[in-house]
Amino acid sequence: MRKILFWLMPALYIVAGIYHFVNPEFYIHLMPHWMPQHLLLVQLSGVIEILLGLGLIPKQTRIISAWLIVAMLIVFFFAIHIPMAIQFYHEENKKLWVALLRLPIQFYLIWWAMKFTRKRSSN
Length: 123
Fold this sequence. Notes:
mainly alpha, single chain
């Protein structure tokens, strides 16, 4: 099971990063109105997610990539997820439940990335 989870995390970020280019409108829709250059930021975050996912694979870059993923998730939590939940609440958006569900998921993703910040001889 540990091996599956080990390979699942890089795949998750690589696929999510690629999806930024396949369907950028999905991510643009989630971005707060006050952020500039939505398409550019979506593409940039896609490249970053791909690179960080790839960085989890080699032992030499795994720990730094994991810490950068933690930092990215914290930034996304405060810059994207909380503003989105607040916006959906004020708009009485029917998808408010999705925005609220994403908040605790961020904590799980941070916890999961933290597991990659420790050296393990078996990985």
